[in-house]
Amino acid sequence: MANPPVPDIIYTKVDEAPQIASASLLPIIRHFASAAGVSVGTKDISLAGRIIAAFPEKLTAAQRQPDDLAELGELVKTPVANVIKLPNISASVPQLVAALKELQSQGYDIPDYPEDPQSDEEKAIRARFDAIKGSAVNPVLREGNSDRRAAIAVKNYAKANPHSMGKWSPDSKTCVTTMASGDFRSNETSATLTAAQAGAARIEHVAKDGTVTVLKDKLSYPAGTVVDATFMSATALETFLAEQIEASKRMGVLFSIHLKATMMKVSDPIIFGHAVRQFLKPVFDKHGAALAAAGVDPNSGLGALMDRVAEMPNGAAIAKDIADAMADRPPMYMVNSDRGLTNLHVPSDVIIDASIPALIRAGGKGYGPDGKAADTNCVIPDSSYASVYDEAIRYFKATGALDPSTAGTVQNVGLMAQKAEEYGSHPTTFLIPADGTVRMVLANGDVLHRHTVQAGDIWRAASTRQAAIEDWVKLAISRQKAEGCQAVFWLDETRAHDAQLIAYVKPMLAAAGVADKFIILAPREATRLSLETIRRGENSIAISGNVLRDYLTDLFPILELGTSAKMLSIVKLMNGGGMFETGAGGSAPKHVQQLVEENHLRWDSLGEFCALGESLKFLAEAKGNPKARVLGDAVDVATQGVLDNNHSPLPKVGQTDNRDSHFYFALYWARALAAQTVDADLAGHFAPVAKALTENEATILAELAAGQGKPADLGGYYHTDDAKVAAVMRPSATFAKIIG
Ligand SMILES: NC(=O)C1=CN([C@@H]2O[C@H](COP(=O)(O)OP(=O)(O)OC[C@H]3O[C@@H](n4cnc5c(N)ncnc54)[C@H](OP(=O)(O)O)[C@@H]3O)[C@@H](O)[C@H]2O)C=CC1
Ligand SMILES: O=C(O)CCC(=O)C(=O)O
Ligand SMILES: [Mg+2]
């Protein structure tokens, strides 16, 4: 049987707030798109969906699901790809286990997560779960480099309606602390593979007695790939963390640690576990063996630890020792002080790209256990990128907060294609089992990298392909040409990896005759220059690697626009397709909590609106469908209408919420289509829709508001009940009738 045709646009099914918002928005999109003959399909890349797809054996036929992520991973390598990608959960172990338990409670016969796999069968199950863990979706789909910026309408709106910014005081004690040695930055080595070195590679551990263990075989790198290797010394990390816990107490500031335990799914949970152990050192010194025997894994956080302790026979005594140890430590930066959730409870609750910008927006304040804002020591163990936040904090302390009503903008061109750099490194990251050396050996016998390591160190290799680098430089050249503004490569010539990239960048810029249009600066200097530039109301393009792409596309939008939800995020796929990410933020777990408690969804779909407009215009070009362009242009008018008329969601129950904003989006979209003169058919089709929506505005808003203030039942958290979610998100019969 022939494969069914690929829908014109694929809209992803995800998790948490964006997925709940889709229950309201997607029917609107489908209704409008169908008038232009545009089909919109979905692919399920949610955490629950991925778990179901990975364990079909004992499921009923009705429960089984195909592996949509794998299909989508193939599609993005083809020119027909046109994907609207919403943010999905990159699961930490506690999230993965919670999603699994929910599925089991719904009657899905899926095995438990083996925390400490022993038998071959358990190891095989664990391997399947490990593939679902962490950032398992984005690296698969991102077959192109990243262009993230604020649309002009969005930036102008933010200037006219500046969000509130916390005040900075010159004597703020808030600071960034990072390791001076022994970290990934300090130990990095990097090389670009010659033709003779291309091909297979393997990573080996050589123990002190000469025993060789292959850590990873069958790697394969084409010529021109930049391959890095480095390690984090466990001893240096422990010493550093112990010092910072003491220093925070001495300085009278909150202790906080900022990692990316989701995307750096092998290294960062281990670093997080070290922080848990150091913070509770007296407890681990006294009860370490008992805790280990009870299956406590500090990498899963204090929350999971406390749950285990509660089940232990001497749990009460250990819990008291934990409370005593905490009382003797500096106060901790809290995720939720009302619920007693600390920075160390769950590894995925504090994610550096979102956490530090929010703290900077607040004038350098975090929330302490007493629920009060306080100065904070922001501990970022690896020093590769800590200088960006350190410089930003120093700059704001000296000069005061940024004024969003006059600030310019920093756009980003990010190198991320083909699992570029650290964010593609999890299959080649290892917790070192014993003292010795780790080496990367190439097919021609060359030892490309070699490090002397100790048991407990975290060793990793990352690679960046020539085709991805060249595509990124070309994207930077075309974006600079389009904007005509300052453009800075955030590369540090003294860092091993960056030096290899600079060797690509400089000749390409020279060959294109545009070397004078670009500056190359190390992250600290680039941060300072970019902040000074936007303070003057001017613009800059940050051309960065993958990690800084992630960090900067939250940092600058959060300062300039108040949120990264409103970003335009385009991934021009290297084989000709398009992927349009919705905003630069995540899935906002606390928004779901609020919806469940009081039926108010504060999720802002502006990122979805922006992505939809781009996707339709891309479709018009790719498939020669002029109606899709009319639809896409009208999306831009509608998005502007939602902004200009202040119909974006607000935080409190009773205020405008996500559903209301979708109504106005549909209203303005229909009006723009009815008013345009390019396509008479579409104008004729949407004139009655616009009229009906206009006439029924008051009725629809009343129907949307009817259930607010009361709890909402979604039938699950990770695996919700579609009918229940639809009932919550589409409560207006009048609206539903008009848009079909
Ligand atoms: N592209 C992707 O797939 C991404 C996925 N993630 C995943 O998202 C989850 C949460 O990550 P986290 O680091 O907490 O970051 P989030 O961006 O989800 O949340 C941080 C805060 O940003 C604000 N926010 C983000 N998006 C929106 C939006 N559309 N509308 C309104 N407010 C928004 C909310 O703040 P407030 O309401 O207080 O203003 C929210 O509490 C994790 O599972 C992570 O793995 C994270 C980043 C990207
Ligand atoms: O894939 C992830 O875990 C998060 C991605 C992210 O934060 C980003 O791309 O901005
Ligand atoms: Mg991010």
TrEMBL record:
Critical for catalysis (site feature) positions: 260, 423
Residues that coordinate or bind substrate: 135-142
Enzyme class: oxidoreductase
GO biological process: glyoxylate cycle; tricarboxylic acid cycle
Any GO MF annotation of the entry: metal ion binding
SUPFAM superfamilies with a match to the protein in the record: Isocitrate/Isopropylmalate dehydrogenase-like
Ligand binding (D-threo-isocitrate): 148, 549
Domain of life: Bacteria
Pfam families named among the record's database cross-references: IDH
Residues at which Mg(2+) binds: 353, 550, 554
Name this polypeptide is given: Isocitrate dehydrogenase [NADP]
UniProt catalytic activity: D-threo-isocitrate + NADP(+) = 2-oxoglutarate + CO2 + NADPH
Metal-binding in keyword set: yes
Cofactor(s) listed in the protein's UniProt record: Mg(2+); Mn(2+)
Record-listed E.C. numbers: 1.1.1.42
Keywords: Glyoxylate bypass, Magnesium, Metal-binding, NADP, Oxidoreductase, Tricarboxylic acid cycle
Annotated cofactor note: Binds 1 Mg(2+) or Mn(2+) ion per subunit.
Entry's family note: Belongs to the monomeric-type IDH family.
